[in-house]
Amino acid sequence: MSDAQTPPRTPSTAPRPDTTHFGYRDVPVAEKQKLVAEVFSSVAGKYDLMNDLMSLGIHRIWKRYFVGTAQVRRGDRVLDLAGGTGDIALLLRDRVGDSGSIVLGDINGAMLRVGRDRMTDQGKVGGFEYVQMNAEKLPFPDASFDLVTIAFGLRNVTDKDAALREMFRVLKPGGQARVLEFSEVKADWFKPIYDFHSFNVLPRLGTLFAGDRDSYQYLAESIRKHPPQDELKAMMQAAGFARCDYRNLSAGIVAIHTGYKA
């Protein structure tokens, strides 16, 4: 798809109550989780390589900033949702120290295994728990965590409002939730370049290095369907979070959203 064919960003709400978006396709709500699972099972082995190729390595800077500006202290208990290959959990480990703990959660078992194996290979075995879970229904009691993070995972959740409510529920009073996600590019001059990269370069990289064009086409489409900055901020407020705010990085390619439990 060329940039001339790229549809404009549309509202993230589903067109009918019984359907939701899977990229630009409308699919039954019950099917989205399965389709997303197939995408991430397909790309799990090449996930880190593809992130470097797609972002020219800039995703590492985004993640470091995301963790470096988080409200977290030694001894804290952290939940990292959509933990994937463990990038965020690994960066958080030094922040929480030996007295803290991190639960690395992901709905996709293949991604979770990649993260666990990666930690083991690096000798990082203490202080981590690995739990396969659905962000829409977290298997933890109320007020369990000092910090909840989700990086590049919220856009793949079928019911984002439910996931945000669950993040709020499991936070301790005074705790912080942070969302790192692709968002809406704000610089008009950059939008055509970004669209060309998304719909022409990414699928070709997927074909070349991962043998999977469709998954990276979905990636580009899912970004356009994700709620833009102010809409996601309003969703966090509706979920109960206080002092909600966001910071754009790289002209809005990604944004960090923050909210607190009063």
Describe the protein's architecture and organization:
The chain has one domain: Vaccinia Virus protein VP39 (Rossmann fold), CATH 3.40.50. It is built from 9 helices and 9 strands. It has helices at residues 29-43, 47-55, 58-68, 87-96, 109-121, 160-170, 191-210, 213-225, 229-238; strands at residues 19-22, 25-28, 77-81, 101-106, 128-132, 145-151, 171-182, 242-249, 254-260. Strand 1 (19-22) and strand 2 form a beta hairpin.
Secondary structure: elements and pairs:
Elements: E1 19-22, E2 25-28, H1 29-43, H2 47-55, H3 58-68, E3 77-81, H4 87-96, E4 101-106, H5 109-121, E5 128-132, E6 145-151, H6 160-170, E7 171-182, H7 191-210, H8 213-225, H9 229-238, E8 242-249, E9 254-260
Parallel strand pairs: 3-4, 3-6, 4-5, 6-7
Antiparallel strand pairs: 1-2, 7-9, 8-9
Helix pairs in contact: 2-7, 3-4, 7-8
Family: Belongs to the class I-like SAM-binding methyltransferase superfamily. MenG/UbiE family.
Protein name: Ubiquinone/menaquinone biosynthesis C-methyltransferase UbiE
Region (Disordered): 1-23
The helical percent reads 40-55%
Tell me the structural class. Answer: alpha/beta
CATH architecture: 3-Layer(aba) Sandwich
Instruction: State the helix count.
Output: 9
CATH class value = Alpha Beta
Our measurement of the CA-to-CA distance between the termini, rounded to an integer number of angstroms, reads: 45 Å
Please state the CA-atom Rg, rounded to the nearest Å: 18 Å
